[in-house]
Amino acid sequence: MSVVAVVGAGKLGSALARRAVAAGHRVRLAGRDDSPAFRARVAAQVPGAVARTLEDAVDGADLVVLALPLAAHRQLDPAVLAGHVVVDAMNDWPSGGPSAADASRTSSTRVQRHLPGARVVKALNHVGYHDLDDEPLVGASPRRALAVAGDDRSAVRTVAAFVDSLGFQAVDAGPLARGSAFALGTPVFDGALDARALRRLVARPAADRSRALVAA
Description:
CATH class: Alpha Beta
Keywords: Oxidoreductase
CATH topology: Rossmann fold
Strand order of the largest sheet: 3-2-1-4-5-6-7-8
Distance between the termini: 40 Å
CATH architecture: 3-Layer(aba) Sandwich
Protein name: Pyrroline-5-carboxylate reductase catalytic N-terminal domain-containing protein
Organism: Microlunatus flavus
Radius of gyration: 16 Å
Number of strands: 8
């Protein structure tokens, strides 16, 4: 059992928190504030999780999951997340696209640049919130596979173990920049793949992945 801080209480964050609670983790959910209304909403929508401020949620957490609109990561205090394993579960949706200066970077490399003291790992971005609620926690064979990418090998192992605990099969996709292999707009994104198929797709060169997407 791990202490998991989920930052973002929207559809994805709430679904991740519910699944983590069901998997036996101690879950802290951080939203925009720590108001009585927010605490009541968390109690109703994510039974077993506790509402916290960002600072309280991440204090002592084994890992932190960012489930925010991508642009919101720039509002996070890097000092608060320094030293933590941080899962980037965010996507670069067109309405919140990067600035021209950032367009050449994957979302996770931008997050890592903003949070230089954190150990950022890309994961949990290519599964829908509805799937997190509906996919069986145990018993599926083969299990749905989810990619994990990061530069810190210890952090990758921590996140892979968390992904496995949620009932999915973690597939190591390589360094953080390889998060582009399962980003929005790739054949992997939101696809229900087993580990073999996922490994094959994330191993393709970027040009091949683009051609596969056009062909689809």
